[in-house]
Design a protein that fits this description.
Elements (H helix, E strand, L loop, with lengths): L2 H13 L5 H12 L5 H15 E2 L11 E5 L6 H5 L12 E5 L10 E4 L4 H10 L7 E5 L10 E6 L2 E6 L1 H6 L3 E2 L1 H6 L5
Parallel strand pairs: 2-3, 2-4, 4-5, 5-6
Antiparallel strand pairs: 1-8, 6-7
Length: 186
C-alpha cells in the first residue's frame, strides 16, 4: 500500500468517531481496492443509514424488522438482497422486498429508480405526515421534494446528499453525525 494511502487511511480512521468508522472505512476501502463493488458499497451505506436515523415510534412498518423496499428495476436490488436477515439496529433483521406503491407503508426504506419514481412519489404524497418512510435514490435524474437521500458518484467516490426538510416532513430525525458526512447541494 502506498504511503500516501496508508496516511489517508490512518487519518480517516483516527478522525472518525466509532459510530461513523464503518462509513469511513467503506469509503477508504472503495478507493483502496476494487474488492468492494460500487453497488455493494451503496447497499452498505443504506444499511448504515438505519443506525443514524430515528424513525417515529408508531411506524406503520412491521415491528421486528427493517424492511427495505427496492425498485424491481434498481441495479441495487441484488446487493440489497444480500443484506436479507442481517441484524440491524436493536438486532432486528433486515427484510428486503420489491417496492410496490400500494404497500409503501410496509417499508421503512424505499430505494427508488428512475423508471418508477413518479408513481412512488405520488403514493408518498397520499400518506399522512410523519409516515416514517425513508426514500433513497441512486443516481436519480429526477428530483422531487419527497426524496430524502440521494446516492451519487463524486470525484470517483460514493457520496450522498440529505434533504433534511423532506426527512422532517416524514417524521424522521437524522443524526448530526450523518449530516456532517453528507454532501451539500443534492
Amino acid at each position: 500500500m502506498p504511503a500516501a494511502l496508508r496516511l489517508r487511511t490512518t487519518l480517516s480512521t483516527v478522525l472518525c468517531t466509532p459510530l461513523i468508522a464503518i462509513l469511513c472505512a467503506m469509503g477508504t476501502a472503495a478507493r483502496a481496492s476494487d474488492a468492494v463493488g460500487e453497488l455493494d458499497l451503496k447497499a452498505a451505506y443504506i444499511f448504515n443509514f438505519i443506525q443514524f436515523i430515528e424513525w417515529p415510534m408508531p411506524t406503520a412498518a412491521p415491528a421486528g424488522a427493517w424492511t427495505i423496499c427496492v425498485s424491481p428495476f434498481s441495479p441495487l436490488k441484488r446487493a440489497l438482497t444480500a443484506l436479507e436477515g442481517k441484524p440491524a439496529r436493536n438486532q432486528q433483521p433486515i427484510r428486503v422486498k420489491l417496492l410496490e406503491t400500494g404497500a409503501l407503508r410496509e417499508c421503512r426504506i424505499a430505494v427508488l429508480h428512475n423508471s418508477d419514481v413518479e408513481p412512488v412519489l405520488a403514493a408518498l404524497r397520499s400518506l399522512p405526515p410523519d409516515h416514517g418512510v425513508l426514500t433513497v435514490a441512486d443516481e436519480l435524474t429526477f428530483a422531487g421534494p419527497e426524496i430524502m437521500i440521494t446516492l451519487f458518484q463524486q470525484d470517483g467516490r460514493i457520496a450522498f446528499g440529505i434533504r433534511t426538510e423532506a426527512t422532517a416532513r416524514a417524521g424522521l430525525t437524522v443524526s448530526s453525525r450523518l449530516l456532517r458526512l453528507a454532501k451539500p447541494g443534492r
